[in-house]
Design brief:
It contains five helices and no strands. By secondary structure, the chain is an all-alpha fold.
Amino acid sequence: MKPLLLSAFVFPGAGYFLLKKPIQGVISALVTIAVLIVFIKEAVYKSNIISQGIVNGEIAIDITAIQQAVFNTPGQISPQTLGVLSWLLAAVWLWGMIDCYRLAKKIKTKHPTV
């Protein structure tokens, strides 16, 4: 259960390191980090535009106006691409949890004292 919990709650792929499968762990971690970097860059890009609009008086200091600006401000990446990246992140995370559980169970079957 430890590898599954590590992959689920600490970081995607973290359980692989406990199972002595560093290549799978590094691949999962790198994919996750790459997707998160894209998300963060997109958020920073949009927040800079919105904050500049607030400073210039183009956007009211009102939660509804700011929320509308978040939805209406074009980003550097299309919403479809962000959706695909979200699904990729979810798939890597879910696969890591399932695979860590499977590998741990396989190891436990071979070595019941572990």
